Each structure stands twice: as C-alpha cells, then as structure tokens.
Amino acid sequence: DALEPYMSKRTLELHWGEHHRGYVESLNKYLEKDDILYGYTLDELIRVTYNNGNPLPEYNVAAQVWNHDFFWESMQPGGGNLPILGLLQQIEKDFGSFSNFREEFTETALTLFGSGWVWLVLKRNEKRLAIATTTNAVTPLVWDDIPLLSLDMWEHAYYLDYKNDKARYVNVFMDHLVSWNAALARMARAQSFVNLGEPKIPVA
Amino acid sequence: MALRTLTTRKTLTTFPQQLRGLQTFTLPDLSYDYGALEPAISGDIMQLHHQKHHQTYITNYNKALEQLDDAIAKGDASTAVKLHSAIKFNGGGHVNHSIFWKNLAPSKEGGGEPPHGSLGWAIDQSYGSLDKLIAKMNAEGAAVQGSGWVWLAVDKELKRLVVETTANQDPLVTKGPSLVPLIGIDVWEHAYYLQYKNVRPDYLKNIWKVINWKYASEMYEKECP
C-alpha cells in the first residue's frame, strides 16, 4: 500500500500478485520443458525468443516478466517531481525542456491504441533520449535500445483505480509515482555503453 | 430487438457552392438496462463500457471523420492517409461495440438460449455441438494477446461458419472480406476487469448465459437462406 492513494493496494495485489506472478509461473513452465532456453539470462531470452519480429510463444511471457520488473522499479513512493543532474540536462538537450518532454510523454501514452507500454529510452545509435511505444509485450530491448523508464498502459494497470480515465492515470504517474532516481541510475549505467559526449570539465 | 442507431446529418454550409454533408454518429441505445445482464456481466461494467468506452470511440471517430473530410477537401493526401489508423481504431471500435450490444440479451429475453433452426444445425455440422463451439471460442478468446475480439462469423462466399480473432478494434473484415459477424465477444480488459479481474476464462465461460442467439440466427439466415 506504499503507493496509495495513487496506485491502490488492490491494484498492486492484482497486478503484481496475479498478472506478474502468472507470467513468471508460465515462464517457468516453459523453461522446464526446454533445456536450451533454460540456459539463457532473461535479457538474452527475450532477444532470442523475439526472433527478429516473429516471436516464439515463450516471448510474451518472458518479456512481460521483464517489463513488469522494470515497471515496478520505475516507480517509488514519493516519486514525481523533476529529474536531477545529468538526466535533467540530457532531457533538456533532447526535448527542449522538461515540460516539452512531459507533454510528449503524456500525449504518446494517451494516443496508444490497444495494450502496450510507453518508454523513455536512450537510443544507442543516435546517442539521445527518445520516447517510444510498444504494443502488447514488446520491449525496446529487442531493438537494442536502453530503457530508462516505463509506464504500463495495459488496461489492467489502471482500470481498478481510474476506470477509463487514462489522462488522470498518466498525470498521477508523472506527478507522484515516477522514480527519477531509478532513471538516473539506469542512465549512469547506460553511459558505460553509450558515449553521450565529453564531460564538462571546467578549465582551471 | 429495437436497437436504433441514431445518425445525425451535419452539413457544412460555409460556402454555398461547397454543400458537403458529413454524417456523424451518436451512441446507440441499449435495448435492456445496464443491470439486466447480471450476474454474467455487472451493471457497472455495462454502464462504463457503453457510456464511456463506446462513447469515446464515437467521439474520436467523428473527430477523425471531420479531419478526414477537411483533408480530402483540401487535397491533403498525407494527412488523409495519416488519419487511417485513427479511423480504423475508433470506427472499428464503434462498429464492433454496436454489434456487441446486439449480441447480448437478458436471460428473460432469450439470452443464453441455444440457437435453433439453420444456425443450430450448421453449428452441429461444423463443430459437432454447441458446447464444442463454445469451448473453441473460449480457448481462442483466452489466447488473444493484449486487447481484441473473438468472433463467430459466416463466410458469405463459402457459406460456412468460422471462428476468428481480431486485435485491438480491427473489424472482422480485416481477417477476410467475405466474413459476416454473427457473435463478437470483447476480450479487452475493460470488458471484464472490474468483475472478473484477470481471470478472462471465467468471463468467457459466463458470458454465454447472456448471448443473444436470436440475433445471430437472423444474421445467419440472411446470408444463408
């Protein structure tokens, strides 16, 4: 109940306890039967079962396990406010301003058709931040991009608390739930793979 | 089954030489109360589903149609094409839900009563029995990833029954131009979440108690007299 009143205990009980747990158990069942897949780490498993756009049946459950882990860690009690330090600078650099970013993120979340996710990703090749959407269980990992934040836009994520008022859900997420600390930590880790530019070392 | 789809005609008469009539859509009424389908589908869900979800599809469909109309008038091809996904989604949502409301009936008005006549016979022919058909549709409905619909349709060219699924709000014709929907079941989470939570199979098991086979039979007999 730590995320009340923004995300109710009941939602978490169901979303984590039933949906996420269901995905984990299905994945375990699949892996029991297949020795080759069993040997992979979860990240590798997702890439392999995605099969370049022709996903194998294990893909959905594997990806949803990962997606939900990522989503829980993208939120925190007392979240919201603004990102700090390098992340804020990078957002301002790539989106113009934080409010531009927030507007674009909200707009993207609300115009998503059907079930899916909205992400803040670091694009590896273009070396910049971007907002991405994926349908159903797809994750930016399969395009080799590095996700920093995610928002679950499947109806089960918000229906109990907000019914069909998606706008309120997205705004509450941005205002109260999103964990910029997690995003900052992920970006810091990502910078060991993606060079975002020279550090600004002041000249003596 | 007095389900009236009310349509209003809106004409843009800014320029006398450009008298274009754009038909927009309004929410069709249900021929039963929101609570009439309990306990299979709760009154809360029916009200939200009808007044919020379906209405939103209609509102956005009308908006997209106006924008499309505008783009066509201006000869703006790229905007016209860009609007297609919004039209398919929202228009599909309107079409699908309009069929859905007719597919349901309270049990005292025949909901759940198995089909007699030619449709009942065709089901037994194609699937062995009504129960086997229901099991098949439930399995396919439960297997839909994310949001979508499961359909019982008749192929009007081949004159046979088909079970199909569509994703999001794609209308049935996207799976085959000669498919005519007889029964559609909404398996978007909003259709069952408040009552059945994540147990979609329970929703699918129970909805058959309020399925209106009379409507399905009528539609079938129209295509296969």
Automatic annotation (TrEMBL), chain A:
<dbReference type="GO" id="GO:0004784">
    <property type="term" value="F:superoxide dismutase activity"/>
</dbReference>
<dbReference type="InterPro" id="IPR036314">
    <property type="entry name" value="SOD_C_sf"/>
</dbReference>
<keyword id="KW-0479">Metal-binding</keyword>
<dbReference type="InterPro" id="IPR019832">
    <property type="entry name" value="Mn/Fe_SOD_C"/>
</dbReference>
<comment type="function">
    <text>Destroys radicals which are normally produced within the cells and which are toxic to biological systems.</text>
</comment>
<feature type="binding site">
    <location>
        <position position="68"/>
    </location>
    <ligand>
        <name>Mn(2+)</name>
    </ligand>
</feature>
<comment type="similarity">
    <text>Belongs to the iron/manganese superoxide dismutase family.</text>
</comment>
<keyword id="KW-0408">Iron</keyword>
<dbReference type="InterPro" id="IPR036324">
    <property type="entry name" value="Mn/Fe_SOD_N_sf"/>
</dbReference>
<feature type="binding site">
    <location>
        <position position="15"/>
    </location>
    <ligand>
        <name>Mn(2+)</name>
    </ligand>
</feature>
<feature type="binding site">
    <location>
        <position position="156"/>
    </location>
    <ligand>
        <name>Mn(2+)</name>
    </ligand>
</feature>
<dbReference type="Pfam" id="PF02777">
    <property type="entry name" value="Sod_Fe_C"/>
</dbReference>
<keyword id="KW-0150">Chloroplast</keyword>
<feature type="binding site">
    <location>
        <position position="152"/>
    </location>
    <ligand>
        <name>Mn(2+)</name>
    </ligand>
</feature>
<dbReference type="GO" id="GO:0046872">
    <property type="term" value="F:metal ion binding"/>
</dbReference>
<keyword id="KW-0934">Plastid</keyword>
<protein>
    <recommendedName>
        <fullName>Superoxide dismutase</fullName>
        <ecNumber>1.15.1.1</ecNumber>
    </recommendedName>
</protein>
<dbReference type="InterPro" id="IPR019831">
    <property type="entry name" value="Mn/Fe_SOD_N"/>
</dbReference>
<dbReference type="GO" id="GO:0042644">
    <property type="term" value="C:chloroplast nucleoid"/>
</dbReference>
<feature type="domain" description="Manganese/iron superoxide dismutase C-terminal">
    <location>
        <begin position="87"/>
        <end position="183"/>
    </location>
</feature>
<dbReference type="Pfam" id="PF00081">
    <property type="entry name" value="Sod_Fe_N"/>
</dbReference>
<keyword id="KW-0560">Oxidoreductase</keyword>
From TrEMBL, chain B:
<keyword id="KW-0560">Oxidoreductase</keyword>
<feature type="binding site">
    <location>
        <position position="186"/>
    </location>
    <ligand>
        <name>Mn(2+)</name>
    </ligand>
</feature>
<keyword id="KW-0464">Manganese</keyword>
<protein>
    <recommendedName>
        <fullName>Superoxide dismutase</fullName>
        <ecNumber>1.15.1.1</ecNumber>
    </recommendedName>
</protein>
<comment type="similarity">
    <text>Belongs to the iron/manganese superoxide dismutase family.</text>
</comment>
<feature type="domain" description="Manganese/iron superoxide dismutase C-terminal">
    <location>
        <begin position="116"/>
        <end position="218"/>
    </location>
</feature>
<dbReference type="InterPro" id="IPR019833">
    <property type="entry name" value="Mn/Fe_SOD_BS"/>
</dbReference>
<comment type="function">
    <text>Destroys superoxide anion radicals which are normally produced within the cells and which are toxic to biological systems.</text>
</comment>
<keyword id="KW-0479">Metal-binding</keyword>
<dbReference type="InterPro" id="IPR036324">
    <property type="entry name" value="Mn/Fe_SOD_N_sf"/>
</dbReference>
<feature type="binding site">
    <location>
        <position position="97"/>
    </location>
    <ligand>
        <name>Mn(2+)</name>
    </ligand>
</feature>
<dbReference type="Pfam" id="PF02777">
    <property type="entry name" value="Sod_Fe_C"/>
</dbReference>
<comment type="function">
    <text>Destroys radicals which are normally produced within the cells and which are toxic to biological systems.</text>
</comment>
<dbReference type="InterPro" id="IPR036314">
    <property type="entry name" value="SOD_C_sf"/>
</dbReference>
<feature type="binding site">
    <location>
        <position position="190"/>
    </location>
    <ligand>
        <name>Mn(2+)</name>
    </ligand>
</feature>
<dbReference type="InterPro" id="IPR019831">
    <property type="entry name" value="Mn/Fe_SOD_N"/>
</dbReference>
<dbReference type="GO" id="GO:0030145">
    <property type="term" value="F:manganese ion binding"/>
</dbReference>
<dbReference type="InterPro" id="IPR001189">
    <property type="entry name" value="Mn/Fe_SOD"/>
</dbReference>
<keyword id="KW-0496">Mitochondrion</keyword>
<feature type="domain" description="Manganese/iron superoxide dismutase N-terminal">
    <location>
        <begin position="24"/>
        <end position="105"/>
    </location>
</feature>
<feature type="binding site">
    <location>
        <position position="49"/>
    </location>
    <ligand>
        <name>Mn(2+)</name>
    </ligand>
</feature>
<dbReference type="GO" id="GO:0005759">
    <property type="term" value="C:mitochondrial matrix"/>
</dbReference>
